[in-house]
Structure formats: structure tokens, C-alpha cells
Amino acid sequence: MKTGKEQLSKVSERILPHIHRTPVLTSSLINEVVGAEVFFKCENFQKMGAFKMRGATNAILNLSEEKQAKGVVTHSSGNFAQALSLAAKSLNVPAYIVMPDSAPEVKKAAVRTYGGQITECPSTLKDREEAANRIQKETGATFIHPSNDINVILGQGTAAMELLEDYPDLDHIFCPVGGGGLIAGTALAVKHFGKNCNCIGGEPLEADDAWRSLQSGRIETNKYANTVADGLKTQLGDQNFPIILENVEEIIRVAEDEIKSALRLIWERMKIIVEPSSAVALAAVIKEKERFKNKKIGIIISGGNVDLTNLPF
Predict the structure, then answer these.
(1) Is 107 in the active site?
(2) Residue of 77, 213, 277, 278 marked active site
(3) Structural domain boundaries of the chain?
(4) Architecture of 53-143 per CATH?
(5) What is the mean pLDDT of residues 107-121?
(6) CB burial string 273-298: b at 16+ within 10 A, e below
(7) More confident residue, 297 or 226
(8) 10 Å Cβ neighbour count for 171?
(9) Is 10 labeled as catalytic in the residue annotation?
(10) Is the pTM of this model over 0.85?
């Protein structure tokens, strides 16, 4: 599939009736801390609370009517489970969601609220994939991967595209790196809509598979991922990695205390609820702030789905 400027524009037009065009917020205090102008694209205000609504919607809209009628299936313990459920509900498409039995009840409840039909399984990737394959065979539903699907990637890229429409002269756009869908889409948007702009990722030191993948030129994995940024524990895929390898300037790794400090800064100074994964991008800017002094920086705030009973402060 083409991943050019025209393609991204069409995706943006296609999904616009089904998503929110989220606001861009600034904080003079954070600008002082960083020594640069920072513009936050607030996907925590997106439908279901995260950028993943964009990719899920685009992926479903790309299916034929016949395929839509049979439904969609994914395996996810978090935001994509909710995103695909809500996107499917708004388009009258059945959604089958495979979730690990260890997933928090609050996330399962959200998926059910959005109309997703949950199948629980043990938490290994093998068990998740087997359950999703079984549902595919039984229902004829189309499998949609949370991050390693070109239609999902293009959908996620529309957040940065909107940010660049509002602020065309950004020098850098930062976003967190987990499964790779957001940063691949963001990098494509920067490539086609930015002017002398580049895309930089932020990643937890405790789950730095994407950083290592850029060094080695092949997809690396994490044996352990003991990070507060629970949305970033997944790994890159064969669809998004080539895009990242070609179009992402660099990935900056941040420690757990740096993530928590950036998270607190956003909560206290901007008065918005964001999840720890979202703070990783700001933490990366702050860590290397001498390099980015006096620059114009965009940050994708990826989501705001927080377990309020388990805050990291």
C-alpha cells in the first residue's frame, strides 16, 4: 500500500467523522523547564481516551461491507481492545476481543461497555494468537493487529498530521514507542507534512527493544519489561519496523524516575490526566533539553487511561 502524502490525507478525511480532532495545549512553565516551545497534541481527549481510536477506525473502514458484516478480532489487554470495540460499535460491526485473564477488571469492563465480546485466555502471546485464530475460523472475522497493520499505522499518523496543520514550523515531534504503530505513523506524517522536522521516539530504559532494534537493524525483544509505562511493553512488527528504520531520527531512552517526574509535571502543571506511557516523550525531551534549546517541539500525548487505584506517585 502507498504511504504517501495523498494516502495520509485520504485517511484523515475518512476517519474524521468518527473521531475527535484533539486539542493542542501548551504550558509556559514546561516551556521554561525545557528551554523550548512545546506543543502537546492531547490524544488523552480522544474517544476512548487514546490515539488508538484513529488506527482502529481506519482499519475497519478499509474492510469491504461483506467483511465488516462478519466482524473484527484482535488480542489486546489495553487501549486497542477498547479502541477496536468502540470503533466497531460506532460502525455497527461485531468486535471479538481476546484478553488475557490477568487483565485488570476495569479494562475488561470498558471493553464490554463499548460492545466488545471478550474471550479470556492465559496471558502468553501463543495463547492469545491461538484464541484469535480460533475466533477467526468460527466467525469469519478479520484479524486486526494493534500496531503491525498498515491501515492502523496510517490512522495513528493522523494525530501528527493534525499537529503539523496547526503548527507547520515544528522542528521535532516526539512520541512514545511501544508496539511501533504510533511512531511509524508519526514518522510518515512528519516526512510528508513537516518542514525540516524530524520524528524522535521516547522509550523506557526498562523496555528498550526499539532502541536496540535501531542499533542492530533487526527486531529485538525484551526478556523483562519492568516499567511504569505499561502501554509500551509490546514489541515492533515487520510492517512498522521498516518505516521506523527509514524515517525515525532517533530514540531516546529514559529511566523510571524520569518518566514519573515528567508525569507529575504534566498532571500538576497542565491539569490533565495522562497515562505514564504518555509522559515518556516529555521525559525524553527533558533528558536531552540542552540539545533542543529554543526549538519548537511537538509531543504526542498518547492517552489518558489511568488506573486511579494504582498511581505511580
Answers:
(1) no
(2) 77
(3) 5-50+153-301, 53-143
(4) 3-Layer(aba) Sandwich (3.40)
(5) 94
(6) bbbbbbbbbbbbbbbeeeebeebbbb
(7) 297
(8) 17
(9) no
(10) yes
